[in-house]
Amino acid sequence: MNETPQRFDAGSVRIYRIPLDLFPGLTGYAHLVVAPECMVLLDVGSGFGECNDQLHAGLASIRSDHGEAVGWDRLTHVLITHGHIDHYGGLGFVRSKTSAPVGIHLLDRRVLTDFERRLEAMADRLRRFLRAAGVERAEVEDLMEVYLFAKHLFASQAVDFTVATAEADLGPLRILHTPGHCPGQIVLQVGEIVLTSDHVLPGITPHMAPGSLARNTGLSSYLASLDRLEAWAAPCRLALGGHGRPIPNLRSRISEIRRHHEDRLQSVWQVLDQPRTIADLTDKLFPTATGYHRLLALEEVGAHVEYLQSRRRIRHVGADRRKPIARYLRLTARPGSRAAPSAFSSA
User: Fold this and answer.
1) Backbone angle region of 47, left / alpha / beta, with phi > 0 → left and psi within -120 to 50 → alpha
2) Within its chain, how far is the Cα of 178 from the centroid?
3) Domain of 292: which CATH number?
């Protein structure tokens, strides 16, 4: 990335966005919060390619370009916003530079402390999901390679503290637990600025995977967290996500995300006029998706199918006796009801 760290002021607190090349085709930000009583690094990048060097250079740029007395030795905390590798993968590098305690939400703690065994368990669940989704065996293995890409670069790391409650504080930072995109996803607020990590992003909606892959994920959890965030962050004038440009109107962006999921749910429901697998639905809704985007599309459709089934808008019509493949069919709307379900009405 050609960007340099950008500064945002929240009273006596300064927030710096450090631009990072996370993976090929994926950019994002770590954030440094500088307050009178603490200096907190939020996320550490992926550790892939030049990401570690960019993180180091970002701190140097904040020091030279903004005159801020920052450095690895001055950090008081390192806080990981959630357990996705583009946010925690550089932790080994950061640990070699600073003795600042590392924290994460309790629900994502094992992602760091027991990485290898958890990765094995997650890979097993994902493989079963893909097979039940109707993905052919050869493609399943191709997608598993995509899933495991670069994860061998990370090894288990110690965690020094955890966020274990729905709300917490770290110096001037208010913390809110917002599960859905990830079990331990947190957002943070300082003054009139909210750091939304991957819970709210500009331009794109955060990736959804079915809750069957990991507890405290899925569309139901995400939408409930979105409601809580909207009320919690009502006074905020600006949001800074883990990827993309600043969000000048958080409430408006939340409304856009709700509408996106409403439309996606309608699209899935409409296509289920005959029994279809999740792979069938993905072919219809994301016909050009390949590689990593194909994997994301399958999980995204799976999350919406799971939501509709939990609201009794569709039903499971059984698995092939020879293969563990699940198919779904929409339920006919009741007389007097709308032709298709609302994402946010009760069943």
Assistant:
1) left
2) 10
3) 1.10.10.10
